[in-house]
Design goal:
CATH superfamily of the largest domain: Type I PLP-dependent aspartate aminotransferase-like (Major domain)
Number of helices: 15
Distance between the termini: 37 Å
Order of helices and strands: HHEHEHHEHEHEHHEEHHHHEEHEEH
Radius of gyration: 20 Å
CATH class of the largest domain: Alpha Beta
CATH architecture of the largest domain: 3-Layer(aba) Sandwich
Largest sheet: 7 strands, mixed
Amino acid sequence: MELKRGFASDNNAGVHPRVMEALREANEGHAAAYGDDPFTGRAVARLREHFGGGAEVFFVFGGTGANVLALQAMTRPHHAVVCAATAHVYVDECGAPERFAGCKLLPVGTPDGKLRPEQVEPLLARAGVQHHVQPRVVSVSQPTELGTVYTPEELKALSEFARGRGLLLHVDGARLANAAAHLGLGLREAAAGADALSFGGAKNGMMYGEAVVFNDAGPARDFRFVRKQGAQLASKMRFIAAQFDALLTDDLWLSNAAHANRMARLLASELARLPRVRLTQPVESNAVFAVIPRERAAAVRREFFFYVWDEETSEVRLMASFDTTEEDVRALAGVVERELKRAP
């Protein structure tokens, strides 16, 4: 059965052939479990090439596990995590950070998904007051859930602000490759100043798996126990590691992400020329946010499924993937144009 490529999510894309080949090779013979295998050793070494020789790297199954356990390692239950109101940890993880880390999330409204020091500052007014949760972590998504990308200067400002107030910086990097591709920088530079981050693979050509990377030795110290207790320790870790090894070989991570970003820009340009379609965010990664008239959006979704981001305004989110083609983009734009012409 041939499944149609769509624009709902980069999670919907398949596995890159080179990653699939790496899985096939990892399937030959036996290897020690729980990460004591050469595949895991090689993948950790590759990640340290990108994030620094002192980085502590741990593989987990998925993005929610990566974020939740990283935050758990960085906090105690009386702490709080400051994040954007659109952040994945706040909106799309079913309360898992609060349940498992035990700390409170403090959301901040932002027009572009980005947190800035002046927005975090007011939440620190009750630092040291025993009746209130104590902010401990600033968590940002890179790119944001609105597809916008922090510049290194913006992240550095947040990092310096956090350190100056005894806080840690966490970066949700489920699409960090897309941010790096947009910035023309390496992965470490795209997550500048992070004490802990997730590096996503599932949205960029892998079957499954994420990496939790610590640049602060404190939270990393007991993470292997946190990971086990959090049900994220893979017995056959070689199959996660082999995928990362493939993704990080010959910059496959970069070519995949750059292609997805390019397809998003093409889609944005195709939609921008259509009457009654309005782009709502700059296209800086592989996401396109646009307002399409409600009744027309519903008709388009019957042919190309995507998610409505804001029901009230009929703002939709369209995601390009590593395997999106120009033909896919123009086909979607053509359906939107056709439906707009049918509108009264």
